[in-house]
Design a protein that fits this description.
36% helix; alpha/beta; 5-stranded parallel sheet
């Protein structure tokens, strides 16, 4: 509904501009206001921290573009790009620091799987009977990790899954419960798993998936 209303509003403004009702060039000078509006909608309607951060980025970007259009500031694209990277880096650091309090003992041990991809990707199958943790990172690339045949050493395991201009897919067994604690910055984390407790007397197996997806996505499924 929100997207539809925004499209209608933009169409109405463009139509009125074509009919000569608005001053000439008003759309060219004030189009960044649309970014600010979308950012405000994300902040007020967002349920996750990633949506709030994305909304804040849209607002900041819209304000900078609008002040540039009005001649108040003179920030070029070559100057704005490094500023954007700094903001994204600060978001990643803040997310990492905020997640330390909820980390369990398994996440502090050496990872059973530690993969880092730059301008590439890979597929990994994990059949360990005592899986505890994994660290995954892709920059301009992606990864697929199959944990469907793995077994946890205890009742909890941890995966640190990050992607910058890339993505990742993690497959887990049906009897693992997945808890997503990731953050998306112009990206997202998706849980498409179906938890089925095959043995009612056994304790639940929980996989915590954390990390950041910047202009990318992380998907967990069976």
């Amino acid at each position: 509904m929100i997207a539809g209303l925004i499209i209608i509003a933009v169409g109405a403004v463009l139509l009125l501009n074509q009919l000569g009702i608005f001053p000439h060039g008003i759309v060219v000078h004030f189009w960044p206001v649309a970014l600010i509006v979308v950012g405000l909608i994300k902040i007020f309607n967002g349920k996750e921290r990633g949506e709030w951060l994305a909304g804040g980025c849209l607002i900041v970007g819209g304000v900078l573009l609008q002040t540039n259009s009005l001649g108040i500031t003179h920030i070029t694209l070559s100057q704005a790009w490094p500023m954007f990277l700094i903001v994204v880096g600060l978001m990643v650091v803040a997310h990492s620091l905020s997640g330390k309090a909820c980390r369990g003992p398994a996440s502090t041990t050496d990872a059973d799987l530690d993969s880092f991809y730059i301008f590439g990707g890979g597929e990994r199958n994990v059949n360990a009977k005592d899986f505890r943790s994994a660290r995954l990172f892709a920059v301009f690339g992606g990864y697929e990790v199959d944990l469907s045949r793995a077994e946890m050493a205890g009742n909890e395991a941890y995966v640190e899954a990050n992607a910058v201009f890339g993505g990742g897919e993690i497959r887990v067994p049906l009897n693992w419960k997945v808890v997503l604690q990731g953050m998306g910055v112009f990206g997202g984390y998706n849980d498409k798993t179906q938890h089925v407790q095959t043995d009612g007397s056994a304790p639940a197996k929980t996989l915590y998936v954390r990390g950041v997806a910047v202009f990318g996505g992380i998907e967990v499924k069976n």
